[in-house]
Every structure is written in C-alpha cells, then in structure tokens.
Amino acid sequence: MKKRILKREFSKRRRTSSGKVFVPSDCDCEQKLLEQASASFNQGYDSGYDEAWIRAMQTVPMMQTVPVMQPVPDKVVHESSDDEYKKGLYDGGEGIVDSILPELEILPGISVRQIIEVGMKHMSSHNYRLLSASEIAGKIKGALKKRSSLSVIRLGDGELLTLAQEVVMSEEEVRKEGHFLSYSGVNLPDLAARDMLAAAIRKADIVGIPKLRLSNFQPLAFSVLKAHHIDYRNLKLTLSTINYALHLEGFIRGILAGYRVLIVGNSAPGLSKVLEDNGVRVTGVVTPVDGIRDIQRVMQEISAAREFDIALVGAGIPAVIIVQRIASELGKVALDFGHLADSLAQGESVL
Questions:
Q1: Which of 28, 161, 262, 336 has the greatest count of CB atoms below 10 A from its CB?
Q2: What is the value of pTM for the model shown?
C-alpha cells in the first residue's frame, strides 16, 4: 500500500476554490501529481475520496470499509476490516458473476477482470470520449485569439450533491453525503443554488465531469443531468480535473502568455503574485467570494474590471455560476481554476 499522501487537491470542497482527480494518459507524471497534491489536505472530508483514488491507482476494485459490529444469533461478532474488504470485493465482482451465471454452470479459470474486459469491448459503441487537456487548451487559445467568449466549468461531488436536492436525493440524504457543502459555498437547503447550477450547465461551453465511478461522482453526474432534463450528448464534456490536467501537462503558462488576466477567489492575492512573478499580466483581483449568496456582488466587481481577456476563478461551487456568467454576460474567456489556485499561491505547485 502506498503511503496516503493524496489530500485536498482532488475534490472541490473549499469555498476558496474547487478541484478533482486527474490521471495523465499520455505521460508518466503520477509521482509528480502525488507530490504536488500532498500538502493540500482539508482535514475532515477528503479522506474517503483520497483512499478511493489511491486504490484505483493500484487497480484494487473496492476500498476497505471501517470495521462494523453485526449482530448474529446469541452473540455479537466484531468483523475485521479485512473480512469486510473481502466481502465488498466479492459483492462487487465475483458475486455479480455468480448471480448472473445459470445455476449449474461455472466459468473455471476466468477472472472477473477478463469478464469485464470482454464486456467492455462489447459496450464500446456506448463509449463517450471526453475532450483532452490539449484540446481544451486549443479551444481556450482559439477563443482568446478571436476575442470570443468561452466558459470551462467543472462539476465535483459538491456541485452534484447541490444539484441532486429534491430531484435525485432527499434533503436528508444530501445533508448526510454533503456535510462539507458549507465550506464550498452552499448552506442546505438551497434549491435556488441547485437551479442556478443547472442553468449554468445548460449555458456553459465546456463541462468537466468526474471520471471515477464512485456513487457521488460520475453516476451521480448523469443522474442529476437527467433529472434536470439536460442531455449530456448536447454538452462538450471533459474531465472535472481539467484544471490540473492543463497545469500538469504544461499548458497554463502558454494560455496566459500575452493576455490580461483577472483572478477571482479567496486565493486571488497570492495567485496574483505568483503569476506576476512568472511574467503573467494580472490586471485585476476580485476577492473574497463568500458563497452562493455573494455571486451578484462578485459579478458587479468583475463587470467593473472589464480590462481582462481571461478570468481564473477559484471559488468553490459558486465558481461554476461565475465562470458561465463571465463568458455569457461579458463575452470573455473564463476557467474554473479550482484548488489549483491555492496550490500555486501556497507554493505547493510550481507554474
């Protein structure tokens, strides 16, 4: 087992920013990703997602669960985490195969992975390709060159849980799963925030969605899109970690070079200094962003600072709405920069 060093960078759960998991497909930068993420932990609500990511990197299909006490006749048995893990591993793999096979038939010598690989080939016609970092960088550069608008938003579990209110999940379920939402700018219940997010998704040019098939990530993404009558096939989709992908694949500096940059969010002052030290022309800073309720004031400040070509917004859940409005109302390019803003401002990552 690798040491647990993945921390804050992989979920959009601070009101100062937002962010999710990026696994480079064309370059060997896993170690770099781990090192840059190690210092970014918001203790209390990240550990489960981090554990899942680490296990996914090790190709372990299920993460360990906490030992539980289960009553059995005449006694209580304390089941070990190893027993629980084995049970989960079976239920999520071999158990499914057992339930599908006819009663008197078996598949000797065939692993679950082999079965899944064959099944994936048969399902390939249903695959939906996401836009890569290089493609997103090209679209941003193209919009900047043409002086046209472009919005790149990202949906993490915070946004998805907010969107799920009373259409996919009850308020009680959202409160249980989204105990971190207040840190990301939403105080439950907030159906207005839900509807604002849905409207922003419909109008956004590019939407980042989670790759991980954990319950509150990719599966929830498509559930809430369907519940809000948003056809994903009409959206241009990329990874919800596209901010990190652009950074780790070296596109950020090239995107910003020669253009006027506006920075929005609680980490804006620190990020501004880092960018200026690297030769980027920062023409404005809007800070702080105090949750969903603060969006209108923030937009007024942004509108007053019209001397910019591209806006980098690190503002938790409100960033989705702010980014989309910057593009549609002001005709500018805007990128949901997420917790990458904090990482660069604090020196955890280097531009």
A1: 336
A2: 0.77
Distances in Å between the Cα of 56 and the Cα atoms of 87, 308, 337 are 18, 40, 25
**What digits encode the pLDDT tens for the residues 275-299?**
999 999 999 999 999 999 999 999 9
What are the DSSP E strand ranges found in 213-267? 237-239, 260-265
Q: Cα separation of 30 and 339, whole Å?
A: 18
Question: Which DSSP state fits 165?
Answer: B
Please give the structure tokens belonging to residue 11: 């979920």
Residue 317: C-alpha distances to residues 3, 24, 181, 248 (Å)? 30, 25, 9, 23
Q: Give residues with Cβ within 8 angstroms of 342, minimum separation 6.
A: 8, 14, 16, 17, 40, 267, 270, 314, 348
Residue 142's Cα: distance from chain center in Å?
Answer: 24
Helix/strand/coil for 17: coil
**Structure tokens, 45:** 């609500």
3-state secondary structure (DSSP) of residue 26: coil
Return averaged pLDDT per consecutive 10 residues of the chain, 351 residues in all.
39 41 42 42 39 41 36 49 91 94 95 96 95 98 98 98 98 96 96 98 98 96 98 97 98 97 97 97 97 97 94 98 98 97 95 88
* Contact of 293 with 100, CB cutoff 8 Å: no
Question: In the structure encoding, which two tokens stand for residue 299, read together?
Answer: 């937009």
Q: Helix, strand, or coil here: 310?
A: strand
